[in-house]
Sequence to fold (549 residues):
Amino acid sequence: MLIAKNNGFFGRAAKVSSFDKRAIHPEQVPQRPRKKMTNQAVRSSRGRIVFVLLAFVLVWMGSLALVAPAQAQVTIIRISLDKFTNTDSVHKTEVEPFTFSWGSTIVSAYHVGRRPGSIGWGSADIGYSTSINGGKTWTYGYLPGLTVNYQGGTYGAESDPGVAYDAKHGQWLISSLPLVGLNPFSGSIGNVGVSRSTDGLHWGNLILIDSTALDDKDWIVCDNTTTSNYYGNCYTEWDQAYGSGDILMSVSSDGGLTWGPGKASADQAGGLGGEPLVQPNGTVIVPFQGGGIDAFVSTNGGSTWGTSVVVADINSHFEGNGFRNPDLPSAAIDGAGKVFVAWSDCRFRTGCAENDIVFSTTTNGTTWTAPVRIPIDATTSTVDHFLPGIGIDPATSGATAHLTVVYYYYPVSNCTFTTCNLEVGFTTSTDGGTTWTAGKHIAGPMKLAWLPNSDNGYMVADYIGVTYNAGNPFGVFAVAKTPSGKILQESMFTTTKPLIVSDDEPRYSSANDQPVPGAKSDHEMIFYYDDGGHRRIPQWRLTKHPNAQ
Fold:
């Protein structure tokens, strides 16, 4: 096993060998402190005197924070590297990770070598980073048999990786979108396929799930509850962006070797970015973006799918600086089957000047709670939060569920392409989302010019993920450094230690926060079947969301 030296991150691009893996050791990265904003204090059950004292202490702490921000105790490590040299990609770039854990293994999959918007979409290949020891060390490589850039592939580019594990059949699965149409003017886009592995380190060639060349934004999940009637079923989702626009679901019951036809919901719901989850009883809940946040359900192992319901409208602040943010939902499930869906939203901000991260929950997929704001910062702050990835410890549930959200943010929302500072932060809850820690800085600042320019703006991701391993939360996220000449320096990173805060860390509640009366987006909300923003959802399909355009 070869060890990557720190200076390799800044070296010249090298040709990819037939099989290239590296174990990455920690790279110390100085962290810039950020101001921690206070919000409503958690009410004590001991009564008014304790509450007043606690409120006083928190206000005092907040005053100190404004004067002398606490240092962030987070160290990040690079866990992968773009080593491709194909001429139709921008190097060195990696974007859009999703991460899943099972046993002591963590697998993250992502784009490698993003193709610029002037050429089309997708990337040179799909990369993976795997830890088999609970996040202590990592090995990375690229999926074989996908693209012409690596080990016998035939497709011109790849996109949209998702990760799952099938416990019944002992298979790791990475779904992806091999691209047939390499630009938005070709009349086609991608197929849907899956790559299989027994250890998360050695991957087989692509297995096609759908070959219509009309698809976008796939996702994958497996039923791993041994008492479920559908234990061992795996479900892949995609939308037929260049066809009907329907959200489609396919089922495999043999570890991803074979797949059934794509089936739509009972009302043929259309949209983008579905993230299916499986409850312990085998019910599959599929949140997605369709003129807002919507969802539909299957209670019979994917034989049929129910009618879609509205979760919530989306009210979003528009960054307006060339940054890519389609505001797709991020979903996770606790050990008892309660589903959380998070997205960025400005309904709690005056004038919709910034986005918060908000979430809605359900226990059955058909009835959802009103959106709740995560109190990362005060509603009077200038911080703009977006691109959340939510994860929940599957060994916890209900009022003691442990949640972590990793997100990107601008410390000052009102910024331009040249002045925006892009950063990564996180927050945690140990009481089922009732209270949260203040936002903590992980990485950055980054300039937008350090990022690859996709077909829909400068890009780190359309989604990111957080996973728990043995009770320890880890996020994987793209971090960019100062370019080396014309070569960018954007790779996948995680943290040397899990994203756990001390027991005495102050917690904050947004229980008394109310949406601003008449809150609405500060720009025209337009929804698309594709993440590049080329196939607009027609108005007749948006009737459940009157504010959508």
